[in-house]
Amino acid sequence: MNHPGPPRFTTVGDAVELAPRDPDPNESYEWTLLDAPAESDTTVGDGAVEYLRPDVPGVYRVELAAPDGTHQLTVRTFPDEREPARFEIPVEDFETPAEEIDRVGVIGLFNDHLWGRDEAVREGDRYVFEAQLEPGVHNSTFIVNDGEEHHHREFTVEGPGRPRISLDAVRDGDVFRIEADARPPADSSTEASALDVVFCLDDRADLEESVLEVDGQTAKLPASAIDEPVGVHAVALDQRHSVRDTVVVGDGGDTIAHPNEPPAWVETATIYEIYVRAFAGERVQTTFSALERRLPYIESLGVDTVWLTPILASPTEHGYHITDFFEVATDLGTREEFESFVAACHERDIKVVFDLVINHADHEHPAFAQSAAGVPEFRDWFVWNDRAEPDADRSRGPGPDDMRAQRYFNWSNIPNFNYGEPAVRSFLLDVVEEWAPLVDGFRCDVAWGVPHGFWKEVRERVHEIDPEFLLLDETVPVHDPDYHDLEFDLHYGTEVYSALRQIGSGDAPAGALLDAVADAERAGFPDQALQMRYVENHDEERYLAEYGRDGLRGAVAATFTMPGVPMIYAGQERGMTDSRGPIEWQSGDTGLTNVHRRLSKTRSETPALESGTLERIEYHTDTEQAVAFARATDDQRVFVALHFGPGTATVRLPEGIGSTELVTGAPIEATPRDDGVAVSVADVLVVEATD
Q1: pLDDT tier for residue 500 given thresholds of 50, 70 and 90
Q2: What integer pLDDT is reported at residue 395 of this predicted model?
């Protein structure tokens, strides 16, 4: 079915990609704008993949003429959320002498990280870049001249936060009743009960919108009107709109599904990232067989999910430059040996996450070579930026002298796929379907570089293969809740990661950790959106090398005791200081390894740590390097104290605590003080509340 998928929710100023599902490169597709607000002047092209650019708020309806018939898609558009933004960097921050600076480029998500599109302007003693951006935290990079100097900066655009919504449905006689739990952002004065909720039916349902009866924050759908499962979507409205939530109600039965929710197993998972070619050690080649032989060690860490960096054919050690998307790298072994590794993991109840790299290909991939040579079949597989004069001779086709393929940052050897080309979409969907049946999830590289609509299709496809399939997005440094809109389950918890780094360097007190956890809610992530907690990965410096062993122990404890899904980067637990260096198995820090084992075990045995909410509590410490909080479920409440510095910290907790520290099993020496009890904390203390 070529239907383009669920309805879209957007704002003025934000373009919506229009693309057929499962396109056939040999067929024709055409878009038509059926309906738009009276004040709108927008149009839509007639190609297979187009963009709708709403210019006024309201409802837009487009139609796709496809080989299997016509399909309609609704796009609900809300007012422009963008605010004036001003990014500044002092000239003195550059190492290049001011008189040698010819230009300062600026890249960020606002310009797709495409170098050369925008430049900062010199104003006195600083360079300034201005743009219209939506409220929130924006990361940008200032690039001097031809790229010899890069400076990363984070800027906050002031403005209202986003509300949040979750839907539930029950069958009540002949009616499915859908209830919205709408919550305003923390900075709003609107009462939750006063928030507007916009409901709509999935366009793929052959139903009139009027069949959905809406009354405030409740919608009703007659069961007798349903011949097959129907999606009901909704967003909450305050000054901005929320990420949608969706329920799917059954075909005359009581079936109710929540497609925006992560797989249940992920909520209690502990992930172990393996940088594949360094894992076996310095003198032992890493192969799938070598990985399989080390599964007892991995299991001993309490890990139940393994994420492998790319294992496909590639000329690079890291594997992110892929030359064949359907073959495993020969130096790692055969496909049969990879399947054996996965089967061995499953025998130990360990899930396997595959690193899916579909934003780009290596420049030696056959498709790119043919595109660069002007072969018509592959000409549009990549985005070519014209560098020639307008009247240049094109008879020879594109080439390095007059054309350059689009790339992000300064990644010169990995050109971006062109998602506007149906053949590319078909090819990459085949890649998804090649590997999804073998593994339990995808970690999606450069997820921000791939259109939202494509990820929505990927989610539906992998869930047809396995309803419990995991999608983890790499959108760093972006932390955008729109990637949870029927797309991803688990997100990089970048705010907590950054806070842990700032605490380790002494640039922030330990209490900043609590604000960082709350950032996901302020940004508008739904409650069911899971955040991955980590202190390092293959793209970052080792925490131990940067901040020392004391800081690392506190930071690791934070990832296991705060809400979210903890991730261990292989070697972190062995005391490695080289982020991509071979694991030093014989000389590793076994004491640190045991710290990770104890934390993993404590989390899995403590429901409040696995799935409880975070509560701020009144506490007092004798150092800014310590923080305390509570985690709670309906049946259990625990206090957690973390310390990131040398020696021990004294932390005063509320009264009513147990006598045993849950991580070590040691008795707690608590001294009454003021209205609480004082305890000593080396790196972490977890104790059950008795009151």
Answers
A1: very high
A2: 39
Q: So what's the pLDDT on residue 542?
A: 98
CA distance 341 to 325: 19
Does an H or E element contain 421, and which? none
Cα 296 to Cα 216, 266, 285: the distances in Å are: 55, 21, 19
Asked if residue 390 has pLDDT above 60, the reply is no
What pLDDT is recorded for position 691? 79
**Comparing C-alpha atoms, which of 552, 59, 597, 9 is closest to residue 299?**
597
Per DSSP, the three-state class of 506 is coil
Residues in the chain: 691
Q: Give SS3 for 688.
A: strand
Among 474, 485, 487, 521, the active-site one is 474
Active site includes 209? Answer: no
445 is known as an active-site residue: yes
Provide the 10 A C-beta neighbour count for residue 11: 17
- 571 conformational bin, left if phi > 0, alpha if psi -120 to 50, beta if neither: left
Q: Do 359 and 114 form a contact (C-beta atoms < 8 A)?
A: no
How high is the pLDDT of residue 53? 97
Of residues 304, 445, 482, 610, which has the active-site annotation? 445
The vertex-499 CA angle with 605 and 560, nearest 5°, equals 10
Inform me whether the pLDDT recorded for 459 exceeds 60.
yes
Residue 260 CA, distance from chain mean position: 14
Q: What is the pTM of this model?
A: 0.94
